[in-house]
Amino acid sequence: MTKVSKIGISLRPSTPQLSGLYFHLKEIAENNDVEVNIDSISAQMIGVYGIDFNSLCKWCDILVTLGGDGTLISTVRRSFFYSKPILGINTGRLGFLTAISKDEIESFIIKLKNGDYITQSQILLEGELNGDKKLYCANEFLISKRDISGMIKIIAKINGKHFNTYFSDGLIIGTPAGSTAHNVSAGGSIVYPYNKNILLTPICPHSLTQRPLVLSDEFTLDFELQDSKGNIVIDGQEILPFNENDRLRVFVSPYSASLIYDRDRDYFGILREKFNWGV
């Protein structure tokens, strides 16, 4: 892989206590002749100088996030146009997508400098709201009801043909990487994160015959609400109103996320550890 000489840093928002870890990483990197810069929003939070995110993406070889999976996903959504590989350093709890813990920073900086790592490509989903507004997600688009009571009625089409009507609290339209997030909590299948699939998982459906569905990446999906008002929630980070007569079209994006991992990473070992399988 490419030897890394310039690293761009992004921190979990509203977490100034990450300043110590940032300075620790910066010191290790610079001691190994690797330059470090930080995006201006993160920099302001910890009281240092930084550059705007777009300039950071143009300058760096890779991006590094300090936080959890949410921080990594946010950075993916902000940077995928630049096709920069991203390394997630986990400071949270679960960390299915992040690559290393804070205790592994020193050894992994050396691996980055020497090009001793791998990248894995994960699909993104692209959405078009009412034919024009572009949306992108790394984990999922969630169509959810707006009111606490009642359900919503979601009309779903595959390649222009009606295939289902969901009466439920909502519907997850997810990626394989997002299968271990909200999807698994709603009873959806865990899917190997480097597959190219679209996951459909109804949330609390009115009928027990409404089951999760896994599709290939060749399909285009359309969703409309009938007699309902809802929201579109993008990766749990952005909320848009979704009303009757609105249409959401979803398909696999030509863009993708490139995530950095150790050559010895064992995905199924991580699943076993996080879910306490076989304990």
Note down, in words, how this protein is organized.
The protein has 279 residues and is of the alpha+beta class. The chain folds into two domains: 126 residues, 3-Layer(aba) Sandwich (Rossmann fold), CATH 3.40.50.10330; 131 residues, Sandwich (Tumour Suppressor Smad4), CATH 2.60.200. 22% of the residues lie in helices and 39% in strands. It contains seven helices and 17 strands. Strand 15 and strand 16 form a beta hairpin. The chain is elongated and about 60 Å long. The protein starts with 5 loop residues before the first strand and ends with a helix. The mean pLDDT is 94.
Topology:
Layout (H helix, E strand, L loop, with lengths): L5 E6 L7 H13 L3 E4 L1 H7 L6 H7 L2 E6 L1 H11 L6 E5 L9 E2 L3 H10 L3 E12 L3 E5 L2 E6 L6 E7 L2 E8 L1 E5 L7 H4 L11 E7 L9 E4 L4 E5 L3 E6 L3 E6 L4 E14 L5 H9 L4
Q: What is this entry, summarized?
A:
Helices cover 22% and strands 39% of the residues. The protein has helices at 19-31, 40-46, 53-59, 69-79, 105-114, 182-185, 267-275; strands at residues 6-11, 35-38, 62-67, 86-90, 100-101, 118-129, 133-137, 140-145, 152-158, 161-168, 170-174, 197-203, 213-216, 221-225, 229-234, 238-243, 248-261.
